[in-house]
Design goal:
The chain has 675 residues and is an alpha/beta fold. Helix 1 (3-24) packs antiparallel against helix 2.
């Protein structure tokens, strides 16, 4: 308290005492015990009221001890059980967290990880993936700006995510506790198998196989690829202590149309501890023909190369480059991309009126808009000679096909001639245009359909910059290429619109996310958010059926079918209000990535410990780990003085006490006839 506050409190005592004395003792004829009691009650009541008026601040000090966090993280993936270390991992966890000295020194935080990361004290070791990168990312967020140690009980075998060695904060020490048998066993393994999802009928498709060997003797092995009971490829491979890897490149024939499942295997005469990783199933969708897309242009521009790369990222597409006068090259083309058409394109337009191909028209600074107005009536152009930059704005209500916003608003502007663009008839706008963040209410990317013929319009050049920006944002061209592929897919078919559209893969690997997406459209072909979609999935072998509801997302419904066993499945999606159905099938290939390991990855865990100035320990060194944590003087408890300041006016009980004092005084005076 300040000096002024103390002086005011002393003055309050004098005032309260003076008023009480004047009330009950000044000129009083008698001084009984009742009078003394009444004077005391009055003194306390007046002093309490003055105390509230002065409102002094009461400071309360308390000591708080903050312990250093200790993150104990357990690998909950099934690879721990496959290495027969699940019980040992649980024992090591209990040994660390139940140590009295550890409990006294640290604030213990218990977590588990497999594909995800979460707080847990119970572990079942059934995780389908291992992502140690998630541990680093989450611990940084949870214990932000703190210096703390981390103990990871794991085999170090990661199956998904970024390389974890350099993902942990180097300021915070990591102590890997390695579980699993580190003894080197003879082991042959198909480490990786690369193959395209699609192949073309009567062609050959490449298969790239990476084989790995662990052992200290020279070994000969046989590598085979079979389909059913037929051997389609076979090679002999030799390994030695100095040659522990082999890369095979094979060409397999695509003789049958449809989904073709193959089985790759490597074997030797030696007995192996783990033979599960000797086999890998894979599948290829064989397509009977390739669609040809023609890009027609009279000028050279980077947009053409970017379009060609995006379209041909789908192995089902082939792009040919054509000049406006090369009509004879368009015989095999199913879609025409007309890049900045001028009067030179008149033979192309005249030919296409008979051929009826769907078209994708892209305009720019070299486009003849008067000519374009004569050749189509979906958009009306009234353009000037001035150039302008147009930014894009995503229209979420677009519903011709499922499309996500891949960051269109952040893409560089397209350049086009300035003017007015109006739509006629049935035109759907996916992207509208903006000039310096001012909406023009004009289309930038639009789609039209007249009498079964579909046309797409992109009003601006330099879309090659969009592809580069998408790569900068996502470290991959995939999202942008899928966006272009969906445009081409829309133009590739002139079939009547379906009310229920379902998208899915023909095959999945075990452990992958299995998601079925669906869209339901009403009679006006508008996306129906109130649709009720269910999916029934039946195992073709066991005939066991499971039913799921499809949950609404962004312009689509989806069902997650994770947890299904390997095998062939038939499924049916049904809209309950209209009874509209879609039926198809897919196959889940047998592959458990968590069973691919024979030993823990000791080298990588030691690299992690070295990177963070920690130390790796084996499962029989748990006591050494505990001693290291206890002896490290870097981790000390912090004693804090918590000072709490409370104004006395916040003391509700003081106001109640004053009321009780005044009430008691009145009651005693009334009882004794002094009122």
């Amino acid at each position: 308290m300040t000096t002024n506050t103390i002086l005011l409190l002393l003055l309050s005592l004098v005032i309260a005492g003076g008023l009480s004395y004047f009330q009950y003792f000044f000129k009083a004829k008698s001084k009984s015990n009742v009078t003394l009691l009444l004077a005391f009650l009055r003194f306390l009541a007046i002093f309490g009221l003055l105390l509230l008026l002065i409102n002094p601040i009461i400071t309360k000090n308390a000591l708080e001890i903050t312990k250093t966090p200790l993150a104990v993280v357990v690998d909950n993936s099934s690879s721990i059980a496959a290495l027969k270390s699940d019980k040992k991992a649980a024992e090591l966890y209990q040994k660390i967290i139940s140590n009295p000295a550890i409990q006294e020194k640290f604030d213990i935080q218990s977590y588990q990880f497999d594909a995800d990361f979460k707080s847990s004290k119970q572990f079942d070791f059934k995780g389908k993936q291992t992502n140690i990168d998630q541990v680093a990312k989450n611990l940084k967020s949870i214990n932000k700006n703190l210096i703390f140690p981390t103990v990871i009980i794991t085999d170090g075998n990661q199956t998904t995510g970024n390389d974890y060695v350099y993902r942990f904060d180097p300021v915070n020490k990591v102590y890997p506790l390695v579980v699993g048998d580190t003894t080197t066993f003879l082991d042959l393994k198909i480490n990786q198998l690369n193959v395209n999802k699609y192949a073309f009928h009567k062609n050959k498709f490449p298969v790239e196989v990476f084989l790995q060997y662990a052992g200290d003797k020279t070994t000969n092995a046989d590598f085979t690829i079979t389909q059913g009971n037929s051997v389609v490829a076979k090679e002999k491979v030799s390994f030695s202590p100095s040659k522990k890897t082999a890369v095979l490149n094979l060409l397999l024939p695509a003789d049958k149309v449809g989904l073709q499942v193959f089985r790759a295997s490597v074997s030797s005469n030696a007995k192996e501890k783990n033979s599960y990783n000797n086999i890998k199933n894979f599948a290829v969708e064989v397509i009977d023909q390739k669609s040809v897309i023609a890009i027609v242009s009279s000028i050279n521009h980077p947009d053409i190369a970017a379009l060609k790369r995006s379209i041909e990222s789908n192995a089902q597409r082939k792009v040919i480059l054509v000049k406006p006068n090369e009509i004879n090259l368009l015989q095999d083309a199913s879609i025409l991309i007309l890049y900045q058409p001028t009067t030179a394109f008149k033979p192309i337009f005249d030919n296409n009126k008979l051929a009826g191909r769907n078209t994708f028209i892209i305009t720019g600074n070299n486009t003849d808009f008067n000519f374009l107005n004569q050749q189509q009536n979906n958009l009306d152009f009234k353009m000037s000679g001035q150039r302008e930059d147009y930014l894009s704005e995503f229209q979420s209500q677009f519903n011709l096909f499922a499309i996500d916003n891949i960051g269109f608003e952040n893409f560089p502007p397209l350049q086009n001639v300035f003017g007015t663009v109006t739509t006629n008839g049935n035109v759907s706008v996916l992207l509208s245009s903006k000039i310096r963040n001012v909406s023009t209410n004009a289309p930038l990317l639009a789609f039209a359909e007249n009498q079964g013929k579909r046309t797409a319009f992109l009003l601006g050049e330099n879309s090659w910059k969009w592809r580069l920006q998408s790569h900068i944002d996502n470290q991959s061209f995939e999202k942008y290429d899928v966006f272009i592929d969906k445009i081409v897919q829309y133009l590739a078919t002139s079939a009547s619109k379906k009310s229920l559209v379902v998208t899915h893969e023909s095959f999945y690997n075990s452990g992958e996310a299995i998601v079925i997406n669906a869209q339901y459209f009403n009679k006006n072909y508008e996306f129906d958010e109130k649709a009720r979609l269910t999916i029934s999935v039946t195992n073709a072998s066991t005939k066991q059926t499971k039913n799921y509801d499809l949950l609404k997302g962004n312009n689509s419904f989806s069902a997650n079918l994770d947890g299904l066993a390997a095998g062939k499945y038939n499924f049916s999606v049904k809209e309950l209000n209209s009874n509209t159905t879609y039926s198809s099938h897919f196959e889940i290939l047998d592959f458990d990535i968590e069973k691919q390991f024979v030993n823990p990855d000791v080298l990588k865990l030691k690299q992690l410990a070295l990177q963070t100035n920690g130390k790796a320990f084996f499962e029989n060194q748990a006591d050494n780990l505990i001693n290291t944590l206890l002896e490290n003087k870097e981790y000390k408890s912090i004693e804090k003085n918590i000072s709490t300041k409370t104004p006395i006016i916040d003391w509700v009980w003081l106001l109640i006490l004053i009321a009780v004092l005044l009430t008691s005084e009145w009651f005693i005076r009334k009882y004794n006839g002094l009122l």
